[in-house]
C-alpha cells in the first residue's frame, strides 16, 4: 500500500513540475512577443491617418546621399502621404548625416501632376545635404 501512495505522489509532483514549466514558457512567449507590436503612441498621424513609409539609399557606393521614400496608402490622403514622406526623409537624413536639409527631386512640395504614384504608393526622391 505504501508503494501505491508513493507512485501517486511521484506522479502528482511530475504533473506540478510540468505545469509550472508550461506557465513559465507561456509567460516567456508573451514577454518576447511584446516587442513585435509597435505601440500606437510611437506612430505619427498625418491628416488623421497612419502611413507606412520607408526611406532607403539609392546606391550606397556611387551616390550615398541619394535616397527614395515610398509611402503606402496614398489614396487615404494625398496631403497626409506627402507629409509622411517628408517626415520619413527628414528622419533618414538626420540619422545618416546629422542634417534635416534635403534637396528634393520629387518631394512633398512637387506639383500633384508631377508626383510618382503607382499601386497606391507615393515615391519621393531626394538628396541629403550635409551640414
Q: How would you characterize the overall build of this protein?
A:
There is one protein chain. The protein has 131 residues and is α+β, with helices and mostly antiparallel strands. It is built from two helices and seven strands. It has helices spanning 2-33, 78-97; strands spanning 45-46, 49-50, 53-59, 63-72, 102-106, 116-118, 121-128. The chain starts with a helix and ends with a strand. The chain has two domains: 2-36; 40-128, no CATH class. Residues 21-38 have low confidence and may be disordered. The protein is globular and about 35 Å long.
What is the terminal separation in angstroms? 86 Å
Helix content: 25-40%
Average residue pLDDT: 80
Radius of gyration from the alpha-carbon trace, in angstroms: 27 Å
**Assembly type of the shown chains?**
single chain
Described by strand count, sense and barrel closure, the largest sheet is:
5 strands, antiparallel
Structural class of the secondary elements? alpha+beta
Q: Which stretches are poorly predicted, pLDDT < 50 over at least 5 residues?
A: 21-38
Instruction: Give the helix tally.
Output: 2
Chain-wise SSE layout:
Blueprint: H1 2-33, E1 45-46, E2 49-50, E3 53-59, E4 63-72, H2 78-97, E5 102-106, E6 116-118, E7 121-128
Antiparallel strand pairs: 1-2, 3-4, 4-7, 5-7, 6-7
Amino acid at each position: 500500500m505504501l508503494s501505491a501512495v508513493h507512485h501517486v505522489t511521484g506522479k502528482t509532483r511530475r504533473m506540478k513540475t510540468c505545469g509550472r514549466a508550461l506557465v513559465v514558457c507561456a509567460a516567456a512567449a508573451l514577454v518576447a512577443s511584446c516587442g513585435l507590436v509597435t505601440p500606437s503612441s510611437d506612430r505619427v498621424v498625418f491628416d488623421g491617418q497612419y502611413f507606412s513609409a520607408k526611406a532607403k539609399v539609392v546606391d550606397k557606393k556611387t551616390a550615398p546621399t541619394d535616397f527614395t521614400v515610398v509611402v503606402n496608402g496614398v489614396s487615404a490622403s494625398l496631403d497626409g502621404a506627402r507629409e509622411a514622406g517628408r517626415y520619413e526623409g527628414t528622419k533618414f537624413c538626420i540619422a545618416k548625416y546629422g542634417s534635416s536639409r534635403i534637396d528634393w527631386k520629387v518631394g512633398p512640395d512637387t506639383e500633384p501632376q508631377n508626383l510618382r504614384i503607382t499601386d497606391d504608393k507615393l515615391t519621393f526622391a531626394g538628396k541629403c545635404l550635409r551640414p
